[in-house]
Amino acid sequence: MYPTNLAKPKQIRTALTLYRVMAVIAGIALFVLMAEMIMKYVFEQENFLTENWSYIHGFIYMVFAASVANLGVKVAWPLKRIVLNLLAGFVPVVPWIAEHRNTREVRAMLQRAYVA
């Protein structure tokens, strides 16, 4: 039997996998965004990256945000934790740190809650 405020284990594992993938992609996209901004505003370059990456990064961040919210709801995180994880997507490297910590905690929670 599983706690009623949590999703089923398979749903949580699927949400965790999507979140992990998106955290890595969002972290990489953030570094590319920084490089794009340097190219655009420091070196005044115009190319496909400087003209389009902001939009691409925005789309990636929205999918990341949806994956955070999805996981947070499935594992019953408080709103504050969901918001802090959303904010992690704004600081380089932090999405990867948060992903590592969240993965460890969610896996431990699954192991405790769903041992039959």
Walkthrough of the structure:
This protein has 116 residues and is mostly helical. It is built from four helices and no strands. The protein has one domain. Helices cover 78% and strands 0% of the residues.
* Overall pLDDT metric: 93
Question: In oligomeric terms, what are we looking at?
Answer: single chain
Distance between termini?
A: 8 Å
Cα gyration radius (Å): 17 Å
* Fraction in helix: over 70%
Which strand-content bin applies to the residues?
under 5%
Q: How many distinct folded domains? A: 1
What does the largest sheet look like? Answer: none
Q: Count the strands?
A: 0
Per the principal axes of the C-alpha atoms, what is the gross shape? elongated
Q: How many distinct helices?
A: 4
| Weakly predicted, low-confidence segments | none
Structural class: mainly alpha
Order of helices and strands: HHHH
Descriptors:
mainly alpha; 116 residues; single chain; 0% strand
